[in-house]
Amino acid sequence: MGIVNVTPDSFSDAGQHATTDTAVLHCEQLIKDGADILDIGGESSRPGAAPLPVGEELARLLPVVLHAVTLGVPVSVDTYKPEVMQAVLDMGADIINDIWALRKPGAREVVARHSACGVCLMHMHREPVTMQTAPMEGDVLAQVLAFLNDATARLEAMGVDRMRMVLDPGIGFGKTVAQNFSLLARQRELLALGHPLLAGWSRKSSLAAVCGTSLESVAQLDVVDRMVPSVAAALLAVDRGARIVRVHDVRETVQALKVWSAARGIP
After folding, report:
1. pLDDT band at 14 (very low <50, low <70, confident <90, very high)
2. Pick from 230, 215, 100, 232: which is nearest to 168 by CA?
């Protein structure tokens, strides 16, 4: 899953693809690099990010989604707003990727009304503005398991086929560095929920922390410094059962996964 941030304030790419033209070109390049899915977002979810008005998010997203749906790969839209979900699904988007796991009023109804869209349900502690000021406490895996189990049960109760759901433990969303890595170490236990897993480690500050880099400078790191730990984390996540990895560095991640597949005898 290749990331397309149509935002001027993304923590990871400093707004490189904030215009429609640059975002469209980035979509095309990610597919050339081997992306199987495009994930397009119009609102930053970095720690401390303020909410974006619906109209502004739509203005950023819709022109890019309109082009992306013609490119021959599934299109995911990273949003938690029901109005945005409805608009992009009407335009032909395939997947809703929601950091709030459809907890906003009306979000479940939008997905339930759609006959076939996929949905990614992510665990987040608190909200982007406050999630890192008071991270989780206690056994993080047990809490994530319980949250995601409840989120899927609520959707199933509304008639949504469980085959449409993917789960994301929410690396970096209200969790400490140690908690994030414990989720990676014990990731296979999340498979007990019976859904495919999505892992989103790309350029996260926890990688910078274990590589001896300060959180404040993570966005200014050289691309190679950010890329290598991100690819390593993606590879470890796949080795522990993730079916989708959400990444910025698509070409390099695809190359690493080809080596991993060859070593396992997978065509």
Report:
1. very low
2. 100
Query: Distance between alpha carbon 187 and the CA centroid of its chain, in Å?
Result: 16
| Cα angle: 47, vertex 53, 59; to 5 degrees | 110
What is the C-alpha to C-alpha distance for residues 246 and 231, in angstroms, rounded to an integer?
11
258 a catalytic residue:
no
pLDDT for residue 8: 77
At 78, list the tokens: 């990273």
The pLDDT value recorded for residue 213 is 58
3-state secondary structure at position 144: helix
DSSP string, 21-72: HHHHHHHHHHHHHT-SSEEEESS--STTPPP--HHHHHHHHHHHHHHHTTSS
Q: Residue 217 pLDDT > 60, yes or no?
A: no
Give SS3 for 167: strand
Residues whose CB falls within 8 Å of the CB of residue 231, separated by 6 or more in sequence, listed in order: 247, 249, 252, 253, 256
The pLDDT tens digits for 240-259 are 999 999 999 999 999 999 99
Query: Residue 230: which H helix or E strand, with range?
Result: helix 223-239
Q: Which residue of the set 246, 251, 258, 264 is catalytic?
A: 246
| Mean pLDDT of all residues in 136-151 | 95
User: Which residue in 81, 164, 204, 240 is the catalytic one?
Assistant: 204
Q: Sketch out the chain's domains with CATH numbers.
A: 2-263 (3.20.20.20)
Tokens of 23: 């975002």
Clarify whether 204 is annotated catalytic: yes
User: Is the separation of the CB atoms in 242 and 6 below 8 Å?
Assistant: no
pLDDT-wise least confident of 16-20, 55-59, 141-145, 194-198: 16-20
